[in-house]
Amino acid sequence: MYCEVNDVAKFKVPIVPATTQKSIRFPNNIIDEVEEAIRGTGASFSAFVIEATRVALENLREDAEAGEDAQP
Fold first, then answer.
1. Is the pLDDT of residue 3 over 70?
2. How many CA atoms within 13 Å lie on the side-chain side of 6?
3. Per residue in 9-63, pLDDT tens?
4. What is the pLDDT of residue 69?
5. Residue 62 phi/psi, 5° resolution?
């Protein structure tokens, strides 16, 4: 039996963006909450923080475009 597939995604070698190491301090309760949130997901602490930061920055951009104040 022959099955034709036209929508096969081509493999692309992932490009890892340049990174810079930063040392930051988190309150212990935040560390505990992040570690609980990622437990069993395979995500690293750094990956979680990077994604959370991306989302926060996007929210700030959207608020600015909508004319909303970012500060309470």
1. no
2. 0
3. 788 887 888 999 999 999 999 999 999 999 999 999 999 999 999 999 999 999 9
4. 61
5. -65, -40
Give a yes or no: residue 2 inside a domain.
no
| Distinct helix (H) and strand (E) counts, the chain | 2, 0
| Assigned domain for 20 exists | no
User: Which 8-state DSSP code applies to residue 53?
Assistant: H
Please give the DSSP secondary-structure letter assigned to residue 70. S
Residue 55 lies in a domain: yes
Could you tell me the residue range of the domain that residue 54 belongs to? 28-65
Give pTM, 2 decimals: 0.68
Task: Give a yes or no: residue 35 inside a domain.
Answer: yes
DSSP 8-state symbol, 46: H
Tokens representing 19? Answer: 């990174």
- Tokens in use for 34? 């992040």
Number of folded domains that form the chain: 1
